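User: Hey, my collaborator sent me this sequence without any context and asked if I could get a structure. I don't really work with proteins. Can you help?
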Amino acid sequence: MMSESPRLLTGLALAMGLAIVMPYEGLSYRTYLDPIGIPTICYGHTGSDVQSGQEHSAEECEALLKQDLGEALDVVDQSVKVAQPITRRAALASFVYNVGERNFRRSTLLERLNEGNVQAACDEMTRWVYAGHGEHQRALQGLVRRRAMERRLCLYGIDPPTPEESPP
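Assistant: No problem. I've predicted the 3D structure and written it out in structure-token form, which is a compact way to encode the shape of the chain:
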């Protein structure tokens, strides 16, 4: 049997990541402010290139998502020092896409993963459900659901799901 090429594995991780991110981010062809006031467009795309009043086509939004998620996967591959299965790479790319490179690189999650403690690393995902700052910080139910799903995918193959974690 021929072993999979790194490029194929990266493509599979990216495809899985797209399937994760798209429903959780939602799609808006027009710029809007996210729950903490950050200008956002398409599938959660943010950055200095996002301006009020912008509009994008479906094709432009998909291209932005692929580019952004590819960058998130690159961050995962550069930061994680131990080999990870495709499912975990996809879950981590979704996580990085949402929390950002800086937060990921400084996280206990990454530290635990590089120590080889996969269970503790994946469990850390569920702590990242808050938006806002200070007294305005609050848990968002969409993030709670997303982190639970990312955690399940992160643990795939090493931890059988409990009944409350199983998909409906």
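In plain terms: The mean pLDDT is 90. You can pass these tokens on to your collaborator as they are.
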